[in-house]
Structure prediction request, 374 residues.
Amino acid sequence: MKTESLCIYPTPKDIIPIMKYIHKLNPSYEVKKVVGFDWLGHVGKDIAYIDNRDNLGYMISANLEESLFECDTLFVPFLCEMYSNDQELKLVLSAIAKAMMMQKNVACIQKLSVYHVKKFQKLAKEKGVIFSYLYPKSKPVKNKSENVPVKLYNPSSPIIFVGGMVEEADNFEVFLWLITKFRENGFKAAGLCDSPYSDILDFQMLSDNHLDEKPDDIIRSYNKLFFDIEKADHPDLFVVMMPGAMMKYSDTIANDFGVQSYMLSQAVTPNFFIYCSLFGFSDTVFWKGINDNLSSKMGYSIDALHMSNKFVESIESAGTYTLSYLCVPQSEVSSVLENSTHPSEMYNFLDDCEQEKIYEVVKENIFSNGCEIL
Prediction:
């Protein structure tokens, strides 16, 4: 299999997990260069600067043409559903056209208008390159059954849920790490999530557009998805990134009140649940209250906690009614976990030195109590 070297442009805040795991989960792609918007102040710094972690070995450049020259493919990541910044949109569209003129392939995750998709498909054909428009869509399940059973199906394969206080508490990176770790150890792990990167990483999208459906229908469609995957693919386990956050953050930051996660939790019950927390929440009494709340609401308890290095920048959040974050060094997370009183089940899942121990804990728990590899 030929591996395409990627030039990533631009560099949104959530790009680091993709950079770390895209080659492991899809060997046909490997990151070689990263290019960012020069006004963000990231140019000339390692990509790890974005969220204050140890260097990853990728310096952010401002020279798109020079970077493209060394790569096979321009990789346009997901930025947002709808552009509010015309300048960014023009730069991204210009970059796609430039790459094709340079005889480079393009893989685009960002949502584009129908007009621009057709325009780039035409240009790609003229230049003899490939334009892969990978904005996520539901992947058909093999041998999908048409009828929704009246009785909810109970999967025989163990299920791991990864959820969080907010969606940005490293939920996606913990999910990617778990999938990668189990697959590297020979397990057939089925990944389910609603990430924009589902298609390129060969995960199953959890949801279609459920806006017009009744809660009962949504819950049954979630349950049926597990039924169809298990019957078609016979996975050893499911690893699931919960849609949305687990509960509201505040009266102004509702996080959809945890409704999506609640409905998924009524569809299937996990064998192991990992809760991702923002930085600084280590008090045992606090977590007992959260666990009691989730247990009564969702029907299962927290089995492991991850502490992120992100914390809410409250001043900006109060002004915009959206959460924005700052990041402490990963060493501070380790320091808190080493020196504070916290639940014994709390870890830093991103700490390379701890990951093997964490993996063994998760594996032992999900394949005990009668759960066996198919």
Observations:
- Residues 370-374 have pLDDT under 50 and may be disordered.
- DSSP finds eleven helices and 15 strands in the chain.
- Residues 25 and 201 are 6 Å apart (CA to CA).
- The first strand starts at residue 4 and ends at 8.
